[in-house]
Amino acid sequence: MLSRLEKSSSRIGYSLKFDWLLLLLVTGLTFLGSITIHSAELNTHHSNWLQHLVFGTLGVVICLTLARWNYRRLLDFHWLIYALTNLILLAVKLIGSKANGAQSWISIAGIKIEPSEFAKLGIIITLCALLHDRPIAKPIDLLRILGIAGVPWLLIFFQPDLGTSLVFGAITLGILYWSNTNRGWLLLLVSPVISMIIFNVYFVGWIVWSIFLLLVAWLSLPWKKVGTLGVLVTTILSGWLSKIVWSVLKNYQKERIVVFLDPDKDILGSGYQLTQSRIAIGSGGLWGKGLFHGPQTQLNFVPEQHTDFIFSAVGEEWGFVGAVMVVLTFWLICLRLLLIANSGRDNFGSLLVIGVFSMVLFQTIVNIGMTIGIAPITGIPLPWMTYGRSSLMTNFIAIGLAESVANFRTNKKDY
Fold first, then answer.
1. pTM for the whole structure
2. How far apart are the first and last CA of the chain?
3. CA 297 to chain centre
4. What are the residues whose beta carbons fall under 8 Å from the beta carbon of 378, sequence distance 6 or more?
5. How far is residue 318's CA from residue 325's CA, in Å, rounded to a whole number?
6. Residue 208 CB partners (closer than 8 Å, separation 6+)
7. Distances (CA, A) of 6 to 3, 21, 65, 199, 408
8. What pLDDT shows up at residue 328?
9. What is the per-residue pLDDT across 133-178, written as a single tens digit (0 to 9) for each?
């Protein structure tokens, strides 16, 4: 029986290592997203739910196609992919259209796309190709990787798109961690951001944090005296630079941070969206109000509910049980990705899947967190559920690459 199944699997081009459960989970989330989007726009004249379903179906086809394609071919094109990523991001800055305070969209053949979403895949492929056979051995190697990742990051940050730039950071850190980069160096890498926050919140805590960083620098950096002195200077400057960073942020970005720190400060203004989202999720109770029966959802109390705040509709209409099921589904997706990465045929494939894992995990945590008030509102979409063609296609392509790694785990022949 097993032999017959293997022959059948071979005829259609898949090995038995193809992760059907992973594909089923993301397809299920896409279908649930379509239903929830339909509910959120039931009393409007929009039909975004149908587009979500159509593009989701197309995404499944793309995913299955990529699964049959050997991911190692990307090694031959990673610099081309990197160049195209930067060029299209530059084109957005020059001829892109602006919406919601950010110039992030560009029109191709009459269809608006968001290149920063596809840029996530570009940076994953580029970093994995660079690190798969040349791990970080010296601080200069780390600076080289950060310089390469920094070009598209800056182009996205100045759109300005703070949310996607944070995703870039999460992807880079995830890939560096999996490539066995010195853990102390990674901590020092993110320390300036943490220093900025602690400096403005708890000064005594900032002093303790600074002493801890000096100890990490002394134990991990090759040039102990010079390196430790550099970390000390960076830590001190980071606290003062927080004021400069604050001045660079747009007004709507500042308002999001203020609302996160004090949601009740302006409940009819900048805090309105978060307040209504929390009301919607809390009113769902254990089992929810029922599909198409959520007052907050049906009466459009939550702005942008079909996009970044789709989870508030889930919480209201599907209740605590439905929300937990969605969270568990994302947990299973991340678990499947980790299993594929851990059993990858080579370093490149393993790193590729970890890049996808980092992207999905970070976006899920931040999106759900911002709808319940434990994370700042950043405009990060919920994978496969938020309406957005570029985001949906990016996530399906990412899963397609992960499925390719799974599919070729035991295959010795290159296709």
1. 0.90
2. 27
3. 25
4. 162, 163, 166, 256, 366, 370
5. 10
6. none
7. 5, 18, 20, 60, 14
8. 98
9. 888 888 899 999 999 999 999 999 888 788 899 999 999 999 999 9
